[in-house]
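Sanity check

After download, print the first record. It should look like this:
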Amino acid sequence: MKNLGQMMKQAQEVQTKMQEMQEKLVEIKITGSSGAGMVTVTLNGKAEMISLHIDPSLFNSSDSEIVEDLIVAAFSDAKAKVEERVSKEMSQITGGLNLPPGFNLPI
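Expected structure tokens:
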């Protein structure tokens, strides 16, 4: 039973840390780019877009598909960086827990 008590205490600590992380996610800012920096997208830790910058020279392009592709690529770059950062933060929180592979805690 002592182990059960320790597990419950550890679970409560993880829950508290996860709530703190939820609050911090909004403050995290990660930027992705494409087209050698001609398009940049900044996301917060919840993968919500904060800003989008498009180099003015791209507005002279008659091919809107290029601009669209660059925006999608910059967003994908930023999102991958956010996922990596959140994963690192989560591993610090759950470091003491032996979670099965693929088990995702709700964030």
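If your output differs, re-run the checksum step. Summary of this record's structure: The beta strands are 29-34, 39-44, 49-54.
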